[in-house]
Structure formats: structure tokens, C-alpha cells
Amino acid sequence: MRIGTNWFKSLALVVGVGVLLAGCGSGGQQTSGSGGASGGSGDKVYVVGTDAAYPPFQMLEADKISGHDIDVMNAIAEAGGFKIEWKNTGWDPLFDGLDKGTVDIGISSITITEKRKEKYDFSDSYFEANQLILVAEDSPVTKLADLKGKKIGVQAATTGEEVVKKAFGDTYEGLKGYDDMPSSVDDFFNGRVDAVIGDNGVLSYYVNKVKDKKFKLIKDDSFEKEFYGMIVKKGNTDAMNKINEGLKKIKENGKLQEIYNQYFDNK
Amino acid sequence: MDWSVIYDYRELFIRGIIYTVLLTAVATVCGTFLGLFISLGKMSSKRILRWTCSIYVELFRGTPMLVQILLIHFAVIPSIWGILYPGANSPEAIYSGFVALSLNAAAYMAEIFRAGIQSIDPGQMEAARSLGMNKGLAMRQIILPQAFTRMLPAIGNEFIALLKDSSLLAVIATPELNYAAMNVAKSTLERYPPYLTEAAVYLVLTLFLSRVVVRGLEKKYSTR
């Protein structure tokens, strides 16, 4: 290729298109949800990480993160009198960020487990969850054990995956761990997996979303009750105390219940 | 750092290695065949054929592999299945993986073939034609064998690129090697052991491919 006018033309084209796109995209600022109330102690802004792909707990809407957990955390910050800044990190980088210190607090429907407690500190719980099994409407499945030998979709590294591993082994061939819950539900409706196991909040949300599809949700009583908590780096008592203080306040004044009703009422 | 997790999850890794090798091998074979026809299409005298093949190549070379995988797995295959076999289950992720890798490889292979074929002196074609061969026969007997030797290094590179690209299939839960490592890392919260193990396996595989397979082929088909 001759470097000359052609080269110049393509450069001009690229720059032109770039400027156009930038023009269109301005105002599409990356999210930073409304922080908590100002005031309180010091001016430290706590970075709150989340994986905004778990509706209705945390989701991306246009250019901002929203959802049950987001409202809860904002209310806690307001009640506890500290400032927060939101960051949509994704699930794995959230834990990584806590380790590295780029994220102070994690709230992402994180179930309080013994294993996680070894590495991180949890706040008090703000939500009680249990696992549900999503199967076809005419499926004979009534409990987890019935799924033996079948393909089960879960979100990798969630408690849904843990119950399957506990029941069928760590390297169970039928276990499909997806990056996010919507993908596994997608593949369930595409018939690629026979069942999906996940938290009640998320799966119930889908029930309301896809009314035209045929499926049912099953509760297996052998599943342990689960509690969601906020997570901080081990030993970060400063953030932990503030969170628990705020959480206690919104539990007492009914704000937590109010947020819950907003998302899960009559479901 | 707890290296015992590798042993605990060895089944996942072994299954992952098998699937990775299988995916790469099948996609290379399919991609080479498809790519050959697409490259011939690109050089055809029929405009429609030429354009179709050019658009195909541009599409697959100009978009990220990850986007292609997501599109094919979550959108294209379920729709096609919905039309062909209403009510039936879509094929599994591994199948989407084969399709995505093969189609992607075909686009790159087409360009490798085109370059290889066009690098052969046009006099070769003319000589073959003047001996009374028709175009197809001359292509098969005279041009392609010569072009093939010149293309081997590039094909080897594509083979290796495919092997590495197959790791992207983890996003659709294809049980390949990267899926295994990611799954172990997420479940055990161990970072170094699974990812280092995975990296080492990929390294061994690519070295084996470039040193043994490609060198061997080059020796076998070398004209010198």
C-alpha cells in the first residue's frame, strides 16, 4: 500500500467517525449511583462493588446500577452517615478488588458462608434467601436428587452451584456454571440444560418476566436457609461497624421492609 | 496458595483438556475446508459469489471472537433450531463452540489460502492450461500443492490462534480447559494454582503444535 493520500483519507475517516461517536455518547457517563448522605465522619468515600447482572437485586438500567441491593446500600449509607461510590465490578473482580483494596464494600446478593468467612468479614444479614429449582412445567422433578444425571445450569461460584456440587460431586459432568444468571436461564429456555438452580429472588423475578413460557419453580426443603450480607476485607472494622449501624437503623425504622416490598411484594 | 485444589478438581481439568484439543482439531479441519471454498469464491469471476465471500470474511475478521460466540450461542442457533425443529432443545454449548470456532477459522483460512494461491506465478496456471488441463484440474494438480507448502507456517499459526481462542468458549459454559480453571478459581477462591496450571497446559499444547506438528508437516512437504 502506498502511504500517501489513502493513508491520510483513512485516518481522517477514523477520526471523523470517532468524533461523531463521542458526540453521540456524551452524557452517557458511567454510573456512580447517588451516594449516601453527606456529613457524618470524615470525608472518606467508600467504594462499593457489585456485579450488576443479577436482577432484581442488582442490574444495569441504561447507564446506572439499580435494584434491591443498591437501594438497601444507599439507605444504609444514609442512615449510617457515610459516603459511598458505586462500581460495577463484576462478580470475580469484586472479591479481587476487596483483596487489593480497590473496593471497600461488596454488596451483590452474597450469601454468608463459612468458606467465605475464612477470607472476608460479613456484616449482619439484610435478606433471607433460599434456593429454588427451575424446571419445565411437565417435569416430574420434585427435589434436587431427581436431577441426578441431568444437566443443571447455575451461576458459577454461587450457592446454587454449591448445592449441586454437594449433591453430585465437585466435578459433576452435568453441572454448567455460567458467568451470570440470565445466561443460564436463557439456556434453560433454549433446552440446553434441564434445570436451573438459583436464589429465590432472582428466579421469582424471572417468573414475572417471562409469563408466556412454561416452567415451574420447585422448593427443596433440604436446602439450607441462606442469608445475604455485605462483605469487606478481613479486619476492616471501620467500614463494618458503619454498615451494621446503618443496617440496624433501617431495620428498625422499616425502610428495609419498604424496599423489600417494592421489589418482592405479592410474589 | 493451595495447590491441592488442582488434584481435587483433576477430572474437570482432564475433561477440559480433552474438549479443548477436540474443539481445536475439529474446527481446524472444518475451517480449512470451508476456508478453501471461500477463498476460491473470493477469486471467482462471478460477482455475487465474490461479494458474498468477501462480506463473510470481513464479518468474521472484523468482529471480536467473543461477540461471535455469544451471538451464535444465544441468538443464531436457538432461532435456527426454533425454525427447523419447533419445540426441540437447542444443541449444547459444545456444539455452538464447534460452529463458532469453525466459522471464525474459515474466514482466516480463506485469507491464508488466497494469499498462498496468488503467490504462485501466473505462468504456472498458463502452462497447465496450455497442456490442456481445465481450470479445476490445474488448480488441484498444479497450483494448490505448491501453494500449500507456502501456506503451512501461516496455517500453523492459525491452528495455535484457534487453540487459544477456544478459551473464550468458557463464557457459554463449554466444558473446556479455561472453563475448568475459571470454575475452580471461583469455587475455591484460589487464584494462582488454577490459572497457572491452565497457562502451563496451554503452553505445552501450543509448543507441541508449533514444534512437532507444524515442523513435521513442513519437513514432509518441503520442496527443498
From TrEMBL, chain A:
Q: Name one GO cellular component term.
A: membrane
Residue ranges constituting the Ionotropic glutamate receptor C-terminal domain according to the UniProt record: 45-266
Which InterPro entries does this entry report, sorted A to Z?
Iontro_rcpt_C, Solute-binding_3/MltF_N
Name recorded for this polypeptide: Basic amino acid ABC transporter substrate-binding protein
* Sorted UniProt keywords: Signal
Instruction: Name the SMART domains on file.
Output: PBPb, PBPe
| Top-rank lineage group of the source organism | Bacteria
What GO MF terms are annotated?
ligand-gated monoatomic ion channel activity
Q: Does the keyword Protein biosynthesis apply?
A: no
Q: Which intervals hold domain Solute-binding protein family 3/N-terminal?
A: 45-267
Automatic annotation (TrEMBL), chain B:
Signal sequence extent: none
Which PROSITE patterns is this protein grouped with?
Answer: ABC_TM1 (PS50928)
- Transmembrane domains' residue ranges: 12-38, 59-81, 93-110, 195-214
Q: Name one GO molecular function term.
A: transmembrane transporter activity
Q: Cross-referenced Pfam families, in alphabetical order? A: BPD_transp_1 (PF00528)
Where do the coiled-coil regions begin and end? none
Q: What is one GO biological process annotated to this record?
A: amino acid transport
- The ABC transmembrane type-1 domain is annotated at 17-213
InterPro entries xrefs:
AA_ABC_transptr_permease_3TM, ArtM/GltK/GlnP/TcyL/YhdX-like, MetI-like, MetI-like_sf
User: Ubl conjugation: present as a keyword of the record?
Assistant: no
Listed NCBIfam families:
HEQRo_perm_3TM
- List the PANTHER family: GLUTAMINE TRANSPORT SYSTEM PERMEASE PROTEIN GLNP, MEMBRANE COMPONENT OF AMINO ACID ABC TRANSPORTER
Entry's family note: Belongs to the binding-protein-dependent transport system permease family. HisMQ subfamily.
Protein's recorded name: Amino acid ABC transporter permease
Organism field: Brevibacillus antibioticus
